[in-house]
Amino acid sequence: MDTDPDNFRFIPGVDEKPWDNNEKGYKKDKDLELYPLERVHMQELHPGERDNSFIEIIKGFSDEEALAEADRCVDCGICTATCPAHMGIPHYIRAIRNQDVEEGLRIMYETNPLPEICGRICTHKCETVCSRGHRGEPISIRWLKRYIADQVPASEYSEVLKRDSFEQNDKKIAVVGAGPAGLSAAYYLRQMGYAVSVFEKLPAAGGMMRYGIPEYRLPYDQIDKDIDFILSMGVEIKYNTEIGRDISFEKLQNDFDAVYVATGLHVGRSTRVPGSDHPKVFQAIDLLRKITLGEPVEVAEKVVVIGGGNVAMDITRSMARLQKQKFGRVNVVATSLETEDIMPADREEIVEAREENATIMPGWGPREIRIEDGKIKGLSVVQCVSVFDETGRFNPTFNEEVSNFFEADIVIESIGQGADLGFITAGFMEQLEKDHRGRVLVDPLTYQSSLPWLFMGGDIIEGPDVIHGVANGHKAAKGIDLYLSKKQ
């Protein structure tokens, strides 16, 4: 690629890359002049149709739209190097061009056993390096992934993927947590012949994919499609089973040859500003979980959400829908420290929240949740001048002379989540190597901890991102296999 948008360069890799067989050097392909610069528009529900419903808003590509979008790909492969799971993106896009979605599905499962899920909610960083984006718009890689997964019925997966039988070895692996990392590790370990038992404390698998992402973004039946195939391979999931309560961590060590912990980030963090201990101050992740479980959620006429990430946008948009259903109107404000250009939420989430009549107020720091006569009146904020210092550390500064006030009946905090590793008993925790902040350290290639039989990964190591979790679980599966192979 070049700063001159008319030039496309094929860059040789240090190690093997999809583009290594291309002719090296500078070249300009005249055929590229004929390629459409704009991506195929994705059809979605109009805001007026979706603002009081949890129906999925993205409709997906038709056959003709998928073929047209796939035809824009120049097959450079830079996307593969950027994808955390290193998916064979040009290869499955080529399968669409060849009208062979079954081959596309096989290619995706080589590196990602959650294509329906990732085809909807992947952060698609691969698209940021797409060479087509240097002259026009990048390829809609995420939507093409979804297209392939949608085209193959669940009933045909075993036949297409040839995953109906495995040579069983005598080793047993325990996976704690049925989120993206745990499910990915279970899939690839099962392929290697291991007996895999996944322990999940909630009544259904999926982790944050199910309990943290609203159904209008990720329908439950699509989560189930990916998970059901993993189960069909012989992976066992023990639901409503909490380690430390129902089964001790010591028992896992004694009963299994290796343990992979991927419990995710399910504990909301508080702002700790005055008033944050009021009973009408909620954690976003707790409310999203209740919505998924069908439990009652308090819906107030005026809601303020503190936070600028995807979880904040998810609860903002969910509350907007619930307000519309209950009151016929929306009055929810989401405020964040970050200005809009650096808000961590995906741009599409911010745009869609506004389309659904939510108010986004970036660049404000919470100072106090005002309480009068025992009731919340609103949130006092001051202008946030900067979020990070010159070293890149989180260290917000404020202009106390510029303030604002957002009226509210309830306040929802969404400033990040933490891990709960309390089920790892003190004796084991003391043996784990940690960094200066107390975070458990693991081998970056195998995710093996300082306890050789214990592997840890997913959000608790990498941070909250589904595709990183998928990649992490795959690497951990290889690490476990390497560890057990050396023990023989």
TrEMBL record:
The main enzyme category here is oxidoreductase
Q: Which PROSITE patterns match?
A: 4FE4S_FER_1, 4FE4S_FER_2
* Database matches in Pfam families: Fer4_20, Pyr_redox_2
Q: In what residue span(s) does the 4Fe-4S ferredoxin-type domain sit?
A: 64-95
Question: Which InterPro entries does the UniProt entry name for this protein?
Answer: 4Fe4S_Fe-S-bd, 4Fe4S_Fe_S_CS, DPD_II, FAD/NAD-bd_sf, FAD/NAD-binding_dom, Helical_ferredxn
Q: What is its EC number?
A: 1.4.1.13
Write the record's keywords in alphabetical order, separated by commas.
Oxidoreductase
Q: Does the record bear Mitochondrion in its keywords? A: no
This entry's Gene Ontology molecular function terms read: glutamate synthase (NADPH) activity; iron-sulfur cluster binding
- Which stretch is the leader sequence? none
* Keyword match Transcription regulation: no
Protein name, please?
A: Glutamate synthase [NADPH] small chain
Q: What is the lineage of its organism?
A: unclassified sequences, metagenomes, ecological metagenomes
